Amino acid sequence: MTLDLALFVVLASVIAASAIGVVVSHTIVRSAVFLLFTLIGVAFLYFLIGAEFLGAAQLIVYVGGTLVLLVFGGMLTSGGPFQTLKVRRLEWLFGGLVALAIFAALAQVSLALGQRPTTDAPLPPGAGPLGVAFLTSHLLPFEIVSVHLLVVLVGAAYLARTRKRAALGSEDSASPPNGGTP
Amino acid sequence: MLSTLDQYLPHAVAIVVAAGVAALVVFTFIGAAAFLFIWGERKVSGRIQDRLGPTRVGKFGLLQSLADGIKLVTKEDFVPAGSDKFLFRIAPFVAFCAAFTGFIALPFAQGVVAQPLNVGAFFILAVLSSEVFGVLLAGYSSANKWSLFGGVREAAQVVSYEIPRSLCVLVPVCIAGTLNLNTIATQQEGFFWNWYVFHDPFTFVAFFVFFIVATASCKRAPFDLAEAESELVSGFLTEYSGMRWSYFFLAEYASMFAMSALASILFLGGWHTGLLPFEPATAFGAILGNLVDVGVFILKGSTLVVVMMWMRWSLPRLRIDQVMSTCLEYFVPISCGLLIGVCVWQLYVPSTVAEGTKYVLAFGSLAFMGVTLVAAAKTRPTPQHAGAFAKP
Amino acid sequence: MIPLSYILILSAFLFACGVLCIATKRNAIGILMGVELVLNAANINFVAFARYVPGFQMDGQVFAVMVIVLAAAEAAVALAIILNFYNNRNTVDVDEATQLRG
After folding, report:
1. B114 vs B111: CA distance, rounded Å
2. For a tag site, which of B79, B150, B239, C89 has the least CB within 10 Å?
3. In which element (H, E) is residue B357 found?
4. Residue range B291-315, pLDDT digits in tens
5. CB pairs under 8 A between A and C
6. Assigned domain for C50 exists
């Protein structure tokens, strides 16, 4: 058993255990914490298989951005302190069956590949070649994603703005903190 | 070190041992740095407020942190009733692990780094930004409104300040053409006008913007809204005591140093003295030269940390809406402009002008510092001045 | 060298967990977390193939970056919608979302 493999086993068990934690947790913030461990584990998995740029991107975007947003959302919508989620037995049964079937099918396909890479493949290109690729051969998807991000920014701002107006109208709360006109 | 160990041990064991040693060194460094910075902070604040600071324990009160540490260890490990106990217990460690992991990719001298990464700058930013999670969890799990306010404020603040911080890091990275911190520092070899801070007007501004934004993302005053004592008791720290409380402080001082060290690598020439015409590592041999380099690097980082302390005890705390609008209305546009400006400068400004600007900026700021120091030395507070504040 | 199939099985497991999370959670944010798990599983596959398949090195990483960016965008919009829904209905239970009118 090589060191790579040993590290992979450790990482994989952390990832798998915390993924189970996400599913079975009773409060939304606890789920988020387990999701945090899963995402960090996946980031380190990227580092382990040599995709350093992706590992760092995963950390900064998912852990620093998305997950904080999720926890924020969980706190703002929880309705009470440490509200628990209830799941019926039957739902566990059906959901578990579906998940098990999917896992079995995917695992079957993966195992059919066998011990595929027998020799060392070259490391994937780093941040430099990736950036060049984004501006040359993969320019179109890059531009589409940029426009998509802009649309998302505008859309999220629009949704948040209507929410503020509705809250102001119904609750008659104080004026916005920066003193602007409501 | 790995190659020496390889001679005596099997390869896998050698790697594990080397990793353990590196982790131990980093951990000891963080501990020692926090130990001294806490003492330093109390001394600095004492001087600024015209008092002595700790003097009792050891010479100049140097062992004050040790005495505090012993007190904290012996305190009861208290978890408030009604809190989410699991999250409450792990929150300090999440915060500390984030700050600790940042040090893994931080080069202290040419090649003196726990794990050389090609995306070092990006990695450190990413890891340090996940420190917010510990604070958020601490605030949420305490079952205390003040803690929750602190945690939510911190999350909003750090997520917003991440944007100008990353953009400011991109400014020197644009010039260097790499994210590898080791290479970035090596490119600034030689005299101090080769440092990226003096490279052009945009990097010069970017350094100050980065430093302010880094202060904010380390939740240091004047941006310490998460623990604003006058409004929120002590924010997310309200329910914490003993060792868990001190882990937050370890994390805070560690991330302060990591940020300052990142600033000194990106802008201030890293471990290069900027004054010597030769490289210590080549002139004095590998071990002694690297020791000198590490010393210079730690000195630069600590100087910036002391500036952060100086800011903390000189400036009043901002309000939360002021903090947010400072970021979104000033720092984000400014840093976007800096990034565009530095690209344009690289492409269109002739090299003679660029060289000239470099010297003007370097010697201009040197002259400015000299004039300020002389002026400060001339206006020593007289006894009358000092007494004026003491009168009721 | 880690065998490719091990990584694929890990990603299959994450995918199954994500599906289970989507199926069992009623909380809209919980469902969002399940979606994140599924996207991560897909991403692991992309990166693993980028590492092991010689002709796929660049494309795999580009795809993975796209997925990360789009996942962040999706989370932002979804949260804005969820917060709006919470403001109207005072709950984030997806079973309550039976009307198209806000």
Report:
1. 9
2. C89
3. helix B351-378
4. 888 888 888 888 888 888 888 888 8
5. 241
6. yes
